[in-house]
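Batch manifest, entry 17 of 40.
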Amino acid sequence: MRASLPSNIGVTESNLPTRRSVVTAGAWSIPLVSLAVGVPMASASTTTAGFDLAIVGLQFGETLPLFTPDYTQRYSSYTPLSNFAVANFGDQPSPVEGFRASYTVDNELAVLDRVGYRVAGSTEPTYVDDVETIVTGTRTEYRWLVPVSVPVNESEDPMFPTGAVALVVESTVLLRYPNDAYDPEKLIGSRVSATSLAAETKTDNNVLQGVGKSDLEPASPYAAQTEATFETAPLGTGPARTSRPTSVKITSIGPRPLPASGSAVVRFDYRSTTAFSIANVRLNGAPTSAFLQTVTAPERQAWSSVQELLAELGAPLNAGDALEFDVVYDAPSLGGYDVPSTAGHVGFTPADNNDRDQRTTEFAYVYGVIPA
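Output type: structure tokens
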């Protein structure tokens, strides 16, 4: 994941193969016909004479939570995703020369790393080296040749046509924390198209424009960044070993303080200890008694080896402040174990896990490594 936006929003280098041509366009002329995510993109109710290429799919990408630059409102955009394909709703196979695929992204939201295609029945994609890149302000269009014929669809379901050729798009998303505040007016969404190298009579289903953003809602965002150290511990008296956290640091990112009702979460393999507790709580390096006064250990599920420890924050943690504590363990539990263990991990969770004011940080949770 990239940590910052590119400083140059003109022609930018990405991880795409170097054998390509780059063009700077003078205007943005792609039609902005927005389609809701999840709506069928094409219909197979009628069959076109000749071949009829059409873009089909369910969505453009996973939901990406974003905020306005002043952090007073939230909205969602969509990460590029190759959850679409090119089908043929005609009565003849498309030409063997193939078609030209095109994918356009907001280049401050994401860059494409690799593109290609996957034919029906194949489990592995074919990546393309020769990619034309056209930059128009904050939008980049990637064009590549798909040198295959698309067979005639034989399904009555327009969402699952037979013989469709999947377009493969692998991307790096740029607008993630700490770059999750962005002007929503700049986003128009991704666009994908398929253009036959031979003349095609029906072309109104060759282009799909994705939704750029959702509606704005009031927001008061916050986030936690977690760090931890881990130790290796035996599982009882047997040969198996595990990792468990020994010290934890939770930093409030802001701009809103971490809510007092949120909790630090510590998880480890219960078989590595007979008792456990939280100790030596510090705020910005100094001892504090204002935080983590309520510590609970929810009952462990019978089918799980994971013990959870919840320590309610107890007081708001202001942006920029860091709360640290140690986790103390007793001797291993009785019994010998030689089964795999779950790696210990720690993090912060709000009282409502579905709280949409949470900013998505890369290290909201951190995991230890299970010893070999």
